[in-house]
Automatic annotation (TrEMBL):
<keyword id="KW-0482">Metalloprotease</keyword>
<keyword id="KW-0479">Metal-binding</keyword>
<keyword id="KW-0732">Signal</keyword>
<keyword id="KW-1015">Disulfide bond</keyword>
<dbReference type="InterPro" id="IPR003146">
    <property type="entry name" value="M14A_act_pep"/>
</dbReference>
<dbReference type="InterPro" id="IPR036990">
    <property type="entry name" value="M14A-like_propep"/>
</dbReference>
<keyword id="KW-0121">Carboxypeptidase</keyword>
<dbReference type="GO" id="GO:0004180">
    <property type="term" value="F:carboxypeptidase activity"/>
</dbReference>
<keyword id="KW-0645">Protease</keyword>
<dbReference type="Pfam" id="PF02244">
    <property type="entry name" value="Propep_M14"/>
</dbReference>
<dbReference type="GO" id="GO:0008237">
    <property type="term" value="F:metallopeptidase activity"/>
</dbReference>
<feature type="signal peptide">
    <location>
        <begin position="1"/>
        <end position="19"/>
    </location>
</feature>
<keyword id="KW-0862">Zinc</keyword>
<feature type="domain" description="Carboxypeptidase activation peptide">
    <location>
        <begin position="30"/>
        <end position="99"/>
    </location>
</feature>
<dbReference type="GO" id="GO:0006508">
    <property type="term" value="P:proteolysis"/>
</dbReference>
<protein>
    <recommendedName>
        <fullName>Zinc carboxypeptidase A 1</fullName>
    </recommendedName>
</protein>
<keyword id="KW-0378">Hydrolase</keyword>
């Protein structure tokens, strides 16, 4: 079977793309403690909002149970004060995910 030049180039492009690594420089993981069912609902709907890009390591399920959230620097500068104004406890677990 003959491989065309286009097929070979395509295979190299796929291989090169699969080797690209995502970097998480400056991303932080936060521990958040929702206190009410409204907090739980808000956190669960947060993934659908385009204002913040969040990644839940431990999702919101029950008031008083911790939630772990990863955020990029551009997002956490707005997100943390917002969570605190809603009455949720927020602490940093990991200061730089990339390290």
């Amino acid at each position: 079977m003959r491989w065309s030049l286009v097929s070979i180039i395509g295979l190299f492009a796929v291989a090169a793309a699969s080797e690209e690594r995502v970097r998480y420089d400056g991303h932080k993981v936060f521990n958040v403690v929702p206190k009410t069912d409204v907090h739980i609902q808000f956190l669960n709907e947060l993934e659908e909002l385009t204002e913040f890009r969040v990644d839940f390591y431990i999702p919101a399920s029950v008031p008083g149970r911790r939630v772990h959230v990863r955020l990029a620097p551009k997002d956490y500068v707005k997100w943390v004060p917002y969570m605190e104004t809603l009455g949720m406890e927020v602490t940093v677990l990991v200061h730089n995910v990339q390290e």
